[in-house]
Structure formats: C-alpha cells, structure tokens
Design goal:
Layout: E1 14-18, E2 24-31, E3 35-41, E4 44-50, E5 58-64, E6 68-69, H1 73-80, E7 92-103, E8 106-115, E9 118-133, E10 139-150, E11 169-183
Antiparallel strand pairs: 1-4, 1-11, 2-3, 2-11, 3-6, 4-5, 5-7, 7-8, 8-9, 9-10, 10-11
C-alpha cells in the first residue's frame, strides 16, 4: 500500500527551509575505544520540497565545515586540517537526495553525501515529528534523521595507535539531524 499525503496529518506540499535556530547537525565517533566524542556544526542550510506523493519529495543540504564544534578548540582546529576535513579546500559537506521510500512502516531518505570531495551514497533513517504553526503564523515541520558512515570512505583516515591496543578513533561516524523547517510563502 502506497503512502499518500492524506496519510500524514498536517502534510502540506511546498518548499521548506531549515530553521537553524531550532535545528542541530551533530555527529559522534568512538574515542579511545571506550567512549564517544560528539560534535556539531553551527552553520548549515537545507531546503526540502514536499510533493503530492510524499515519496517524491526531495532534500538538498549543506554544512560549513569550519563551523565544527566539539567543545575543544584545539581538536576543532585539527578537524579543519588535512588530517580530516581539509576545510580550506573543501569548505562544505553536502547532501542531495536521490529518493524517499517507505520500508516496514519507516521512512528512508537515500542520497549522495559529499565530504572532502568524495561523494558516496548514504541512507538516512527518517523519523517524522509532525507539523504545526508557530506563534508568528509560520507553518513548521520537524524531523530527526540519522545515518552511519565510515569516515575512511570519505578520505578521513588519520588515526593514532593506543598503548593499550587499538586506535584513537573509531571508523563509524553517526550523523544525526534534528531539524525544524518552515514552509516558504509563495
């Protein structure tokens, strides 16, 4: 059975812009093989277009690499270098959707993620939060999306061995988006 706009309470077609003051682009990676380090990007942009058929909707987003924040200025500076993001040469991470699908009652957003000049297909697990109007008459949508990528697939290969065995950084990076977006007025 195909999903329709009528199946989603409050669904409206149109162009939506991410509201950065009510959104977060975050990530986490295993550190010292015992815990996770978390970070976020403070500068990002995104647009999605909801279609009559929700599965025909599209997403385009970008993140400014230099805005990385892990609560440690030295680490943030290291992340901007050639050991990791090479921010001077590749100032943005981008995502462009290639499709939306429903799988066992859950939504998946497939697309191409570009990081450090390398583009790879990824799938975000999409959790829809809902629709609603704010106090200023803006119509908003909220959702969370999550994916896991191998950092080495994007050329982020720097690591350091640990005295206790293993390496400083894990391979898997979890990217989590907590997004609120506003329907644009024509």
């Amino acid at each position: 059975m195909a999903i329709t706009a009528a199946d989603i309470p409050g669904y409206r077609t149109g162009t939506w812009k991410v509201d950065p003051s009510h959104s977060e682009v975050g990530f986490s990676v295993r550190h010292l093989a015992i815990s996770k380090v978390r970070g976020s990007f403070s500068e990002f942009d995104g647009t999605f277009v909801t279609a009559e058929n929700p599965l025909d909707s599209t997403v385009e987003a970008s993140v400014e690499v230099a805005s990385v924040d892990t609560k440690d200025k030295n680490r943030d500076g290291h992340l901007r270098t050639g050991d990791f993001f090479l921010a001077d040469e590749y100032p943005q991470l981008t995502f462009v959707s290639t499709g939306v699908r429903e799988e066992n009652g859950d939504f998946k957003v497939d697309g191409n993620l570009t990081m450090r000049g390398v583009t790879k297909p990824v799938t975000f697990d999409f959790e829809f939060g809902g629709f609603g109007a704010d106090a200023y008459g803006n119509y908003k949508a909220g959702f969370t999306a999550k994916t896991v990528v191998k950092r080495e697939d994007f050329g982020l290969t720097w690591n350091a061995p640990l005295e206790t065995g293993g390496v400083l950084l894990g391979s898997d990076v979890t990217i989590t988006l907590d997004i609120q977006a506003a329907l644009q007025q024509d």
